[in-house]
Amino acid sequence: MSKQARRDQLLDAALAVVRERGTDGLTLVTLAEAAEVSRPIVYDHFGTRSGLLLALYRLLDEQHRAAVTQALEGAADTAQVLSVAYFACATDLPEFAAVSAALKGDPEAEAAQHELLGDYVKLMVTALKPHSKLAPKALRLRCLALLGAAEALTVELNHGRITAGEAVAAFAGLMR
Questions:
Q1: Alpha-carbon gap, residue 97 to 102, rounded angstroms
Q2: What is the 8-class DSSP label of residue 24?
Q3: 54, 81, 94, 161 — which has fewest CB within 10 A?
Q4: Which residues of the chain carry a pLDDT beneath 70?
């Protein structure tokens, strides 16, 4: 198996462990057991638990941004599509929030999360720019603020205090 194929296999197994046991149940040892590989293979790919969680976070972020980009192609209502896609991540990829939370406090991970947030803001700016009269810097700041609002809505959604439809409508309304 190629190194990339092995890494993909390990990340798939890591996702399965997180779904089954939560992020607290994911260690390099539990991953080796779940993937039925030796511990040195897992250590070679990720080095540390933080390295593993960060790789998993990057994978989930990549999957989410790819889905958003695809959904935006030919979209008539950009705000609605961005909103639906954002909250689909919260419901379809619940591991994303769990992995993100598990990375809190790790300086390397927080730097990477900040970088990925920047990438998501760029995606939003690109999608909303044709519909906005704001200067690029102002639009970027608004997108950052929108994502903060979306995080608050996600907390409400995950605690069952609002429905996905309410979250989507509120977020789309803010973008408009």
A1: 9
A2: G
A3: 161
A4: none
